[in-house]
Amino acid sequence: xxxxxxxxxxxxxxxxxxxxxxxxxxxxxxxxxxxxxxxxxxxxxxxxxxxxxxxxxxxxxxxxxxxxxxxxxxxxxxxxxxxxxxxxxxxxxxxxxxxxxxxxxxxxxxxxxxxxxxxxxxxxxxxxxxxxx
Length: 133
Hints:
Elements: H1 3-8, H2 18-27, E1 29-33, E2 38-40, E3 49-55, E4 58-62, E5 65-70, E6 75-76, H3 78-82, E7 92-95, E8 99-105, H4 106-115, H5 117-132
Antiparallel strand pairs: 1-8, 2-7, 3-6, 3-8, 4-5, 4-7
């Protein structure tokens, strides 16, 4: 699957324009995680990256208790990457099977959003809807 298609599967990014998806895909890096490997560790400061799942499955766990499992198209870590640099990660995100993701770092996402303010509004609207639900 190409990066643009993978980004389009994420509800957070699906409404971006093709040129925006192309720009974002150019800074997204593919990473692979083995079962049991952590993408995100609860309690760590400074959200350096968010992830969009391409394949596989991850478990979200808070205080050692599984609260959700997510698969392809899901996004994790976006709140810490979009928030202040001292934000503490609130949950562990652990691969439960071989998992491939697109990683988008804070230092790539922020310049993208400054250059594409309408993309920022799309993302804010999706996050607001998610919080309301």
